[in-house]
Structures are given as C-alpha cells and as structure tokens.
Amino acid sequence: MVLFNYILMCLIFGTTFLAIKVGIDTGASPFFSAGIRFMLAGMVLFLLMAWKRKASLSLLLCKEMFLTGVGLTLGVFAPLYWAEQYVSSGIAAVLSATAPIMILLLQAGISRQKLSVTSWSGCLVGFAGVILLLLPSFTITFNKFWMISCVAILSGQVFYSAGTVYSRRVIQQFQDTSPITLNAAQMMYGGGMLLVLSLFTEEVHIESMLNPKAITSLLYLIIVGSMMGHTLFYWLVAKTNPVFPSTWLYISPLIALSLGALLYHEPLTLLSLAGGITIIVGIVLVNMDNLRQLVDKKSNKVEKVCNQR
After folding, report:
1. Which of 27, 38, 40, 160 could disulfide-pair with 208, CB 3.0 to 4.6 Å?
2. DSSP three-state, residue 173
3. pLDDT tens readout for residues 204-219
4. What does the pLDDT look like over 261-290, one tens digit per residue?
5. Are 23 and 213 in contact (CB under 8 A)?
6. Model-level pTM?
7. Neighbours of 58 (CB within 10 A)
8. What are the domain boundaries of the chain?
C-alpha cells in the first residue's frame, strides 16, 4: 500500500504542472484561478477535518496560518501560475525542484552549520543544471519574458524554502493538530491572498474561466492535485518518515517533462533535458545524508524481522 500510494503521489504531483498550463493557455487568469484552487481545496479539507472533530475555527485566527500561507502558497504559486504563461510545464516543474537546495542553504545559514562536501557538490551541480536549462534561450533566441518567468519560479522556491523551514516549527507548536488541518488552513489563507492579488492586478474574463478545459483543469487541481496529492503526502509521512515522501522531487519533474512533450507537444531540447537531469542529480546529492539514514533504517528493520524469525 505504501509503494502504491507513493507512485500515485509522484504521478499526481508530476501532472499538476501540465494541468496549470492547460488552464492558463485557455485564457484563465493566473492569480484568480490559483486563488480559487487553493481557497476551495483548503475549505473542503478544513470542513472535512472539522466534521471529524480534528479542526476548530480558532485555528484560523492564528498568525502562524497566515505566515505559512504566504510562504507555502502565495509566494510559491503566484509566480508559478504567472510564469506558465511563458514557459513550458516541464521547465516549470524542473525549476520548482530546486527547492531542497534552497532549503539546505537557508537552514545552514540560520543554524550556521558547515555543509558537507557532498551537500556543497549537490548545490553546485544543481546550479549547473539551472544554467543548462536556461542556455537554450540564449543560444536560440533571447526571450525576455521566458527569462523573467524562470527567475520568478526560482524566486518562488525561496518563499517555499522559508515556508517549509517555518512550517516545521509551526507543526511542533501545534502538535495536537493534524498536519492536514494545518495545511488546509494555510491553503485558505494563501488562496484568499491570491484572490486579493488578482483583484488589484488582473482582469478576470468569466467566459475564459467557463471554458471546458479551464474548468477541467481547475477541478483536477483542486480535487486531485491539492486534496488527494497532499493527503497522500501526509499519509506517507505518518506511515514512513518525512524524508521518503519528499523524494517525489526526484521523479515528478521528469514525469512533467515527459508528459508536456508527449501530450502537449511542448518543445524539449537536449540541453533542457540535460539540465533537468543535472538538477535532479544535484538534489539527490544534497539529500544524500538523509537518504543514507533512510536506507540504514530500512536495513535495520529487515534485520530485526529476520532475527525474529
């Protein structure tokens, strides 16, 4: 069951980037569609958890939910949705996968701990992958909005890394509250802020939002992407550990690249593919210590089972 849910989670997270692209290409307003997605997904999850008596309205009055909403939803998905007007879904997915590198650098800066040689190597390899990924825009034709979009997605991962580090402290602070409830609350805050951003920065065309492709994309992102995907993630965290579910970042970007090229005919150069793979290698190196601990724990469990027999 764990392996099945893990594969399903990777597939879900790998397809969300293409679903966003489909919705944006139909003319859906980026900030408005993102706001509706997270507001509705957060509300449904929060109501479900409240029905199970695992959520209370008082949680929504806590400033921590607002701050995590800024870091994990507003700061990440505002630039991502806007950028997918100009970049392919596969490129967006690969650039979004740089988050673990930024989290490592942020944690090292806060704790003032020295990084291992392997971790520094991973950061350098990941940075080289980003350069390879961006290189075609210089070698073929320079596209200003393409470059700005790539930088926007990377800046979104800075928000994500800060939000992730902060949310770990919030989870410890609210130990009696389900992580699913906390995630629902921050999605509601993030979705609300995205809707406010939309109100002041873009014109919403209702006819575009009612396009069958836009509606299908939105429903898929709400139900499958936000509700199912994140629920599976937290289920895997509970059943295994925080490291194992996070390895979706090694798989989903390559799924997104492949789906974008095969189903949506997105251009995929050899340099872009090489850059994507290089970034994934960098992420693996950055998380090498955690992966070794995960393998050691599994090996110890297998030994204990064998000894008991």
Report:
1. 27
2. helix
3. 888 888 899 999 999 9
4. 889 988 777 777 788 788 788 877 877 766
5. yes
6. 0.85
7. 7
8. 2-308
